[in-house]
Design a protein that fits this description.
single chain, alpha/beta, nine-stranded mixed beta sheet, 46% helix
Length: 283
């Protein structure tokens, strides 16, 4: 565990070196971006980050602004600021000039996509797990977060959870309350940019999108894979929006194969050409 100051904030960071003997100096650093509100870097640690480090890539995990153990300012929860946070943090870690492969889960996938569009010179690959890409998602999420904010305002739930010795649940509930009721997060999400096919067409790096077969976000993943020049969609059967939690074995193999392919551009080109780009069911 480490705390790193980048810009005006102190970020909670986990940095996993590539396993000795498997490391290659020219491989991109793999950076993980988690989802909103009750999520944090720990969701990636065992399912993906440790296997990625063992495969020969350095892995960097961090709590986004206001989440987990990172500092929680009152504002700055828009995607542009999140991308600035990401690259400021990489600079603080002396990784500002290294190529990076971004792995984003849920809202973290949206941030990864923004980062790739902003810095195509540094982002050499994307793995997007259940990325929310449509305007409809923004509207639904704002409604959901607003309802949650009202239910948490002046709530005694964190205290009651502590009384029951449920410290982790109490902490997550307190963080959610602070984010939703004492920051601009909901307003910033409401003002989110909606991606277009033209945005996807500008992606110069290989992109793997992973969605559950029953996920409401699948149409957005299909559209991205259709328009991104090097986009591939993998659909995991019998799952919804919970691919990171519920499909760790298949997901791990899928992500590691994508990393191996994109670490070698020639292999990546062969792999992309040999696989169907949209609608593949991984069983």
């Amino acid at each position: 565990m480490a705390f790193v100051r980048a810009g005006s904030l102190r970020f909670h960071v986990q940095r996993l070196p590539a396993t000795a003997g498997a490391a290659a100096p020219d491989r991109p650093v793999v950076v993980f971006l988690h989802g909103l509100v009750v999520d944090n870097l720990s969701s990636f640690y065992c399912p993906l980050a440790v296997p990625v480090a063992r495969s020969g890539h350095e892995a960097v995990l961090y709590d986004l602004r206001g989440h987990g153990r990172t500092e929680r300012p009152g504002s700055g929860y828009d995607s542009r600021t999140a991308v600035r946070d990401l690259f400021a943090l990489l600079g603080a870690l002396d990784l500002g000039q290294r190529p990076v492969h971004l792995v984003g889960n849920s809202y973290g996938g949206t941030l990864a996509l923004h980062a790739a569009l902003a810095r195509p010179d540094l982002v050499t690959g994307l793995t997007l797990l259940e990325p929310p890409l449509s305007g409809a998602w923004v509207e639904n999420m704002v409604d959901t977060l607003s309802a949650a904010a009202l239910s948490l305002e002046d709530s005694t739930v964190p205290t009651e959870l502590l009384t029951l010795r449920l410290r982790k649940a109490a902490n997550l509930t307190a963080i959610a309350d602070a984010l939703l009721n004492r920051t601009t997060l909901i307003d910033d999400i409401a003002a989110s940019h909606t991606f277009t096919p033209a945005d996807y067409a500008r992606l110069s790096c290989p992109v793997l999108v992973v969605c559950g077969e029953h996920s409401e976000l699948l149409p957005g993943g299909e559209e991205l894979a259709m328009h991104a020049p090097h986009g591939v969609l993998r659909i995991l059967p019998d799952l919804g929006h919970d691919v990171l939690k519920e499909s760790s074995g298949v997901l791990r193999e899928t992500v590691l194969a994508h990393l191996d392919a994109t670490a070698d551009p020639a292999a990546g080109a062969v792999t992309a050409a040999a696989q169907p780009r949209v609608g593949a069911l991984v069983r």
